[in-house]
Design brief:
The complex is a heterotetramer, with two copies of chain A and two copies of chain B. Chain A contains four helices and eight strands, in the order E-E-E-H-E-E-E-E-H-E-H-H. By secondary structure, chain A is α+β, with helices and mostly antiparallel strands. By secondary structure, chain B is α+β, with helices and mostly antiparallel strands. Chain B contains four helices and seven strands. In chain B, helix 1 packs across helix 2. Classes of the chains: A alpha+beta, B alpha+beta. The interface between A and C is medium-sized, with 14 and 16 residues. Bound molecules: adenosine-5'-triphosphate (2 copies) and magnesium ion (MG) (2 copies).
């Protein structure tokens, strides 16, 4: 399976709906400090439900909604494509769109996940990800500062990284 | 549980020897503080960068530490492969030569998987197949450029992409 | 003890407002979590980088965090001045523009004090008055070059300096 | 007071005695990873007695002796120059050389400080530094990783930085 595109709509510093196609192979992202690069990574973690709000540098989920935006909600969509095994065990090529929305309401935050437009629970989304061979632990995402943390953590903490893998 | 851990440790150790040789051109190895009862001790990383003596991670220079940690990350990724990897500014402490070696290591792995790498280093950007530019525009928010033109959908309310 | 702390806090706060404006061209301030009993709480750093909203340090980008921390360090140095300062790779997370601003800030302070700054960034090196080059030579150890030629003493058993 | 030069002899990666003159104003140091730049900073901390061995990335003081070197000792000298106030309160321009030696012996490590060739205790050295307006706390030295540590430490730890200043 491969990632085809990421669309950020009113998410963190992305006030305008922005679709970012991602090609195969080796893609780099660059730009000035504070321009929004790590926010793109936060969007990936957000849409796949693989981080807490603190892991996305937000106190609460509603902090992810663009402050300068006009809408009370943030929406992120990840388009995936690949060989899917259907019910008969046959492999067919298909696309799937995963979406997550967080909405600010008087009663508090409201958030939900969708797969191809249909609301799903997080557990269903993670089952789908496992079928696609996509980690649900976030182990494939090295966040800003992780390498430096890895160099300064003690031997036991480092071994615990391996515990999680096993 | 212990068997599962020791099996994972054996595979990561083997992968680490390879990735460390690739990045630092030296010998590196992982060692358990307590091999009989792994959960009672930590994980020791020892390495002999090219031309130097064996040292624990803690005694290395800033850049050598980062390079060693990246070899460890590559080893974990080899044992637990995924179709898509993200690296956010992992090359902060690296000099030009080490950044270039890392870029080559990513490029060779990217034949079979997608790598999305955030970096300020030109050496890294030049080795990639596509660079996505990100800037902040006053009163507008984040603007993304450099996305291949044929991918832009005019129907999107996102005129700044590829503009 | 509390009075001494509050006095130091007032002076560092004032200095921080100045150094943050110089580095980030925005407004920054220090705040005590518990102003009546400072030792019962922590120190909060809030900043509004140019064109953005007020945010605590924890919510900023990597580079913005480093720049804010450097403004804090400059404030501490202003309140507790020394004739000689050392910075070892403090610009790791900074982009080119912020590195240049930092280099200018160091240069202006270096009129009255010595600054010894280790950096991999050309932007930083080019603003300094003297660059000391350090390399590792196989079988020899660290070799230092770029030291002004008139300073080399032939009587020293150090033929590699300035060679 | 200003720093005139630093001489490293068999200290860490400096197998050959090396004198490094340091000019007034803004001096930069650059070079590849692992070449010895931070070791120069360790030498400054070592000679002025302002860090523990761990603060210089050494398990013990004897680890600071160059492994590839031929001597069983390491020696660092810092040359300072400036306006000194003598006993009558007059200001005269003088130079002073501070030296520290660590020696590996069968009985263990042996180390001592010297000022202008005369052995002194650390307390005497720190009195001299205070007279020169030179901090004895190391607060004027920002080590590799300190900025990143400062950004990730909690509010209380950050306030404690200020406690030390007060
Ligand atoms: N809810 C929000 N609304 C608007 N802007 C936000 C919101 N949350 C975060 N931001 C902005 O996003 C910026 C941080 O972006 P990000 O962390 O992606 O930067 P970066 O490009 O990774 O920078 P660096 O190179 O320094 O790591 C902050 O300056 C902040 O102002
Ligand atoms: N006692 C010793 N004898 C010989 N070499 C040593 C000794 N102690 C440390 N070293 C060497 O010094 C090197 C580290 O040097 P240093 O930390 O100064 O590098 P650096 O130039 O700051 O690199 P970076 O840019 O990665 O921070 C290590 O590679 C190590 O091999
Ligand atoms: Mg970032
Ligand atoms: Mg260093």
């Amino acid at each position: 399976v491969r990632v085809e595109a990421l669309t950020l709509d009113n998410f963190k510093s992305f006030a305008k709906k922005t679709r970012i196609p991602i090609r195969d192979g080796f893609t780099t992202v660059s730009g000035p400090n504070g321009s929004g690069k790590s926010n793109i990574i936060d969007a990936i973690q957000f849409v796949l439900g693989i981080a807490t709000s603190k892991g996305m540098r937000a106190e609460r989920l509603t902090d992810l909604i663009c402050i300068e935006g006009t809408k009370p909600s943030a929406r992120v969509t990840l388009e995936l494509a690949g060989a899917f095994e259907d019910a008969d065990g046959r492999r067919t090529h298909k696309k799937v769109e995963v979406t997550r929305v967080v909405r600010r309401q008087k009663s508090g935050a409201q958030a939900h996940y969708e797969v191809d437009g249909t609301p799903v629970r997080l557990t269903d989304l993670h089952d789908l990800m496992r079928d696609l061979g996509f980690p649900t632990s976030g182990q494939n995402i090295v966040l800003q500062g992780d390498v430096i943390r890895l160099t300064s953590m003690g031997g036991v903490a480092r071994r615990q990284v391996l515990d999680e893998l096993a | 549980k212990r068997t599962a851990f020791l099996d994972a440790f054996a595979r990561v150790s083997k992968a680490f020897a390879g990735s460390f040789a690739e990045l630092a051109r030296g010998e590196g190895r992982l060692r358990l503080e307590n091999p009989d009862d792994p959960f009672a001790g930590g994980l020791i990383i020892e390495a002999r960068p090219r031309g130097k003596k064996l040292a624990r991670l803690e005694a290395m220079s800033g850049g050598e530490k980062s390079l060693t940690a990246l070899a460890f990350i590559f080893a974990l990724q080899e044992v637990n492969p995924a179709p898509f990897f993200v690296f956010d500014e992992v090359d902060q402490s690296l000099d030009g030569v080490n950044t270039d070696t890392l870029a080559s290591a990513i490029k060779s792995r990217a034949d079979s998987r997608q790598y999305l790498v955030i970096s300020h280093h030109r050496v890294m950007l030049e080795k990639s197949r596509q660079t996505i530019g990100v800037t902040m525009r006053k009163g507008w928010g984040t603007v993304v450029t450099g996305v291949p033109m044929e991918e832009t959908e005019p129907a999107q309310a996102a005129p700044e992409v590829g503009a």
